[in-house]
Design goal:
Elements lengths: L8 E4 L5 H12 L3 E6 L3 H12 L5 E5 L5 H13 L6 E4 L14 H29 L2 E6 L3 H4 L5 H21 L4 E6 L14 H10 L8 H12 L10 E2 L8
Parallel strand pairs: 1-2, 1-4, 2-3, 4-5, 5-6, 6-7
Helix pairs in contact: 1-2, 1-8, 3-4, 4-6
Length: 249
Amino acid sequence: MNKPIAETAVLVTGASRGIGAAIAERFARHGFKVAIHYRESHEAANAVARRCMEYGSQVMTVAADLRSREQIERMAAKLEQRGFRPDILVNNAGVAHFGLLSDVTEEEWDDLMAVNLKGMFLCCRTFMPAMISNRFGRIINVSSVWGLSGASCEVLYSTAKGGVNAFTKALAKELAPSGVTVNAVAPGVVDTEMNARLDPEERDALAREIPVGRFAHPDEIASLVYFLALPESGYITGQIISPNGGWLT
């Protein structure tokens, strides 16, 4: 990376809350230019942006439905106009699904795959040409421990995240000669709204299964994403790294 940190742009998708918000704040804290993507949560995204700006970084918010190629292209044009062409792309946006496979509709399957897989594919295809041209880039995909081990009653989500992992490994080989690394972070249980459906008893039981005895904090996941984005992490590519407190080894 030849440009100064203050001129290096990071796009974090799904950054209006949870892990995505923590990632955006981590980069802002270190002086990067940060683009915060959201789909509908305008006020939440603005709140994250305000926190990021407190660190003195350049920040912008941008809305797009990642299931739509046209909306992603419009998002890319807005970023370009503001000088936020991403050097680092964090594909964090995703949705989960809990329930028996026998109850899943075709529409639910299509929608979940569109957000978790198609959106990642479209973002990579849109933003990686500039990285290739610059001979530097970082693509970091947020996966899940369930993409490694699978989970009962989360077949859709496990399948999608398994696809994220395979996509990561394959694209890493394709882009390595161009100086672009591609890695995935596959967290265990993180204390976010996605796990808010758990009642206190379920949370306690789940925490007891994890060797470190607790859920991860979003900032702990953000720290790993940040590390993978650094210039000195250029020899790490094609890896699926799972911060899960020893739950899966």
